[in-house]
């Protein structure tokens, strides 16, 4: 079973994101999946906080992608926050060239990334957001996590 973390409130989801930032490395592409309103943007707001983004992070549903300058000692300079829910074709996602963008000390977090998973290939981290009967969000992570990072991930999910 992949590590899962239960978030009982918006604050929890944001904190899960903030702590998840510690796991990230320059070059990472993270696909976020889950139903409408599952907490993906809230999670990204937490990640942004963890990466030292100073401005407000809002949903990029209509802009597809927003870039945020980061201030941290993780070697991550830019957070690319995408939402591919409304794109009309996979070409639009290809045109973003996220793979190239993250090479420049960046990470990308893609809401609804599973809709365009074929473009990103197997070298992605996936976070799935499930909403259970009590409105609790259950976040589980899988994908390209090397053994060195697994310990941090297990610690993250145990919180
Ligand atoms: N663990 C939680 N428990 C209860 N509510 C939560 C939790 N996490 C986030 N929320 C709330 O759920 C709502 C939707 O969150 P958010 O916008 O982050 O979802 P989303 O997955 O990005 O939605 P969309 O699919 O529209 O992009 C917000 O009001 C947020 O505060
Ligand atoms: Mg969203």
Give a short summary of the structure.
With 159 residues, the chain is of the alpha/beta class.
Main sheet specs: 7 strands, mixed
Please identify the top-level CATH class: Alpha Beta
Terminus-to-terminus distance:
16 Å
- Could you say how many structural domains there are in total? 1
Helix and strand topology:
Elements lengths: L3 E4 L2 H11 L8 E6 L5 H11 L14 E5 L8 E6 L6 H7 L1 H4 L4 E6 L5 H4 L4 E7 L5 E7 L3 H11 L2
Parallel strand pairs: 2-5, 2-6, 4-5
Antiparallel strand pairs: 1-7, 3-4, 6-7
The site of adenosine-5'-triphosphate has 18 residues, from helix 1 and helix 2.
Characterize the structure shown.
This protein is α/β, with parallel strands linked by helices. It has a single domain (4-150), classed as Rossmann fold (3-Layer(aba) Sandwich). 30% of the residues lie in helices and 26% in strands. It has 6 helices and 7 strands. The chain has helices at residues 10-20, 40-50, 90-96, 98-101, 117-120, 147-157, and strands at 4-7, 29-34, 65-69, 78-83, 106-111, 125-131, 137-143. A 7-stranded mixed sheet has the order 1-7-6-2-5-4-3. Strand 6 and strand 7 form a beta hairpin. Helix 1 packs across helix 2 (40-50). The radius of gyration is 14 Å and the shape is globular. The model has no long low-confidence stretch (mean pLDDT 93). Adenosine-5'-triphosphate binds next to helix 1 and helix 2.
């Amino acid at each position: 079973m992949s590590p899962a973390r239960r978030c009982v409130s918006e604050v929890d989801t944001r904190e899960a994101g903030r702590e998840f930032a510690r796991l990230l490395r320059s070059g990472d592409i993270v696909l976020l999946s889950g139903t409408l309103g599952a907490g993906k943007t809230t999670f990204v707001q937490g990640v942004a906080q963890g990466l030292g983004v100073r401005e407000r992070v809002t949903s990029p549903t209509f802009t597809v992608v927003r870039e945020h300058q980061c201030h941290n000692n993780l070697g991550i300079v830019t957070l690319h926050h995408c939402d591919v829910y409304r794109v009309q074709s996979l070409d639009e996602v290809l045109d973003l060239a996220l793979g190239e963008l993250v090479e420049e000390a960046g990470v990308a977090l893609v809401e609804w990334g599973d809709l365009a998973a074929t473009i990103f290939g197997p070298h992605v981290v996936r976070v799935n957001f499930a909403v259970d009967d009590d409105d609790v969000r259950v976040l589980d992570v899988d994908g390209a996590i090397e053994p060195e990072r697994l310990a941090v991930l297990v610690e993250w999910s145990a919180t």
